[in-house]
Amino acid sequence: MRARTSYSRGLALAVVVCAGAAVGAGAGRSVELSRIRAERLNHGARASELEQRVAGLSAFDEAGLKSLIEEERRFDSRLGPADTWERLLGILGTRWSVETSRSEKHEGFTTIVSSLRMLKAGTGDWPVILAAIERAEGLAGVTLESIELASAGPEAPGGFAVVRVGVSVRHKNG
Length: 174
Known about the structure:
The chain has helices at 2-57, 62-78, 84-92, 126-137; strands at residues 96-105, 109-118, 142-151, 160-172.
């Protein structure tokens, strides 16, 4: 009988150990299942967020998209060629000096905002100034932003102290 008791105790101990292992494995499996469920919920929330962002990006109807495409075409048609800045300086000639210039490169085009000053200008240069400005404005991509004229005063009759133009040039990247 003793052997049976010893055997029974061993069997009971084995059952307890197996049950503990099963519970431990079950707990491990439960933790793993909880982790997988949490990941699925997180992916679902992320997918929902992405769907909302895509829906927000698609806020334009077909007419709105056509309008945007047309606006882009008009913008592109107003851009000058890649050498517009050099052509502008060529039209103005050597009597004009670049005082300030700032260039910003964008995707597909560049914007140059500049201040140009005519050197040693007199009132007799007025037709030359007007002709240069008209030719400059005729270039695609060139916009005259400002003109500044200041008389030299009584010290230099018939002269200008300042002849300055502000221009912006938008040209396609070459």
